[in-house]
Amino acid sequence: MSALVISPLSLDQLTRDYWGSYDAYVIAQLASLADDECYQPKFYKAPSVAEESVAANGYVPYGLKITPGSLIFGVYNPALFSTGLPPQFDVQITAEDVNLTFWSEPIPSLLLGNFKPTYGSQGPDNFGSFPNLLNCPYPVVGEGLFLVELWETTGDAQRIELVIGVLENVEAL
């Protein structure tokens, strides 16, 4: 007997199936993996803590290794609560094993922001947020090597971090 599968992502009260928004469509693709014992959520951060302070107009290339067989489902780039916008920078992610870039050219961080606060906490900039989901899960192949390139674009030094949401294949470990 099969049960109705509900993805934990669909429990976010601010996610609705609106025209032009594909969150609900992508959540439906991921729903069957919610109870699958082969996958567990894991988060990868780019760049490292030592490199996240980026100089004005700086460039940070960061090598990232994700477990092969995993699925990348989205990017967490939380906005500042006061502005509703994420920190400003440009980003490009390249899958090194297949020499495939995620976007045809580096994109502004604004396109990866997803201001859907999930809880309030102490202080105006301390809150959780929903990920910006990719239009479909991206399978990690080969050695799982990625190059994450970040460009600071405001002209002021700032802290830049990008968190990549992955469903890690635990059988591959």
Describe this structure in words.
The chain is mainly beta and 173 residues long. Helix content is 5%, strand content 38%. The chain is built from one helix and 13 strands, in the order H-E-E-E-E-E-E-E-E-E-E-E-E-E. The model has no long low-confidence stretch (mean pLDDT 81). The chain has a single domain, classed as Sandwich (Jelly Rolls), CATH 2.60.120. A hairpin with a 4-residue loop joins strand 5 and strand 6. The two termini are 30 Å apart.
Would you report the number of β strands?
A: 13
Poorly predicted spans:
none
Number of domains: 1
Q: Which structural class should the secondary elements be placed in?
A: mainly beta
Biggest sheet character = 5 strands, antiparallel
**Share of helix, binned:** under 10%
Query: What is the H/E order?
Result: HEEEEEEEEEEEEE
The fraction of residues assigned to DSSP E strands is 35-45%
What top-tier CATH class fits best?
A: Mainly Beta
- The best one-word shape is globular
Number of helices: 1
Task: Calculate the mean pLDDT score and round it.
Answer: 81
